[in-house]
Design goal:
Layout lengths: L6 H9 L4 H7 L7 H8 L4 H13 L3 E4 L2 E4 L1 H25 L1
Antiparallel strand pairs: 1-2
Length: about 100
């Protein structure tokens, strides 16, 4: 992870890693096993997925669940904060493609 002292920079570094946002997105509706998460992410290698899961667990965003991996309370909060960004991105994409 980055050595920045600024929390927002550390978060953006984590979220900017390949597949991180996709993992969070796929877990938004509930827990998934490793296999199901890998299939939902389509194309991620097992080693990369393992690395992302470990990083997200270390950050307190993911936790182990009886059904596999799940967003923690902190991860669900982050997901809620990302929804307005998703809405903005959709509007931006429509304007950019027009």
């Amino acid at each position: 992870m980055t050595t920045s002292r600024q929390p927002v920079m550390r978060l953006l570094d984590l979220l900017g890693r390949r597949w991180t946002l996709r993992v969070l997105w796929e877990l938004r509706d509930g827990p998934l096993t490793f296999r199901a998460l890998r299939e939902a992410c389509g194309g991620v290698s097992p080693s990369v997925l393992n690395a992302r899961v470990a990083e997200l667990r270390e950050a307190g965003v993911l936790e182990d669940a009886a059904e596999g991996y799940a967003l923690s309370a902190r991860g669900r909060e982050l997901g809620e904060l990302l929804l307005p960004l998703d809405a903005w991105a959709r509007r931006w994409a429509r304007r950019s493609s027009g």
